[in-house]
Amino acid sequence: EIPITLLLLDITPMLPVLEGVVMELQDCALPLLRDIVPTDKEEVAFKDLDAAILVGSMPRKEGMERKDLLKANVAIFKSQGTALEKYAKKTVKVLVVGNPANTNCLIAAKSAPSIPKENFSCLTRLDHNRARSQVAMRCGVPATHVKNVIIWGNHSSTQYPDVHHCMVNMSGSELACFDAVKDDAWLKGDFIATVQLRGAAVIKARKLSSAMSAAKAICDHMRDIWSGTSEGEFISMGVYSSGNSYGVPDDLIYSFPVQIKDKSWKIVDGLAINDFSRLKMDATAAELIEERDTAVSFLGV
Which residues are noted in the entry as NAD(+)-binding (predicted)? Predict the structure, then answer.
């Protein structure tokens, strides 16, 4: 158990609102929360950080071209990366949540050249948890009985939720997901679409994007970095792709199955990939390449 000091950065006009967040955090009487520092100054917020969770990004407004969205976010994440480079510990673990998360993460990493690329990740744990929960509900078991689902690729609607290596604990025995669910058409169709489009479904219902489930996924992601993953289990996170065994192009932040030990992640190797999976993994990689190339063209601007 590690005591935590929270440094909360926001833009100046939002400081009164941030005070309300501070009050709520105090009122939670959290056992590990030692101090809360609200600020609008990067040099305060980023100083000597052990962990940075970057949630602020420009949301897509109606009628906005994806290109304009990328341009606005390149500016934000270039400045956050620069601040990390300047003020944070070189061992800082950086989690990017603000969308488009994978590409924002890549831009932040490229803007902080002296921090190892391995220290940057983006959040696909929410998608991972969504996939896990869908399978669990379908099988009538608790979500904890479902392990090793995989989210491949982009945190967007091209992501590929893969259950070919997923195991379900059904009344004490571990079954392959396809044997537990017994509905291949659902697993290869509606299941995938439900997970891919879940964020939009939440917005449609709530008129606001995922809040509690996103916060829970951030906690899961960070806890696993600090405490490691359980033996025989892997989780999904967007990490820097360089020479992996799955033929995913280099220099992308791409979601892979990973295991974590001593605060270092390792991509799970040797998982069999069939043609169905290959096509979906390639499609999401193609989207990420396009996003990256567009974003990088704005970096010098």
Answer: 10, 73, 97-99
